[in-house]
Amino acid sequence: MNIEDQLREALKREPAPADFKRKVMQAVPANRNLSSFWWKRRISLVVAAAAALAAIIPAVVVEQRHRRGMEAREQLLRALQVTNATLRHTKEMIHKHTRRS
Fold this sequence. Notes:
The chain is built from three helices and no strands. The chain is an all-alpha fold and 101 residues long. The protein has a domain at 42-101. The longest helix is centred in the middle third of the chain and has 67 residues, at 34-100.
């Protein structure tokens, strides 16, 4: 007997025993309600989605605040540059008019 024959013999189809269905049904708890199983699964999916949102939303809020803070910083630096230039110009004008007097 070669290996192919051994494989065919080992993998040949055999009918299920007559009491197979009964044994399987006995193994499943009688009070198991499949509709409640689906509800529990839906609830757990909703809880998982809520947990994911609870983790994502604060990160998005922090990122937006950081971005707004950086924009405010840039505006402040630009305002300080303008103020510095204006003060420098004013100082030059004061010195210029003070020397002539």
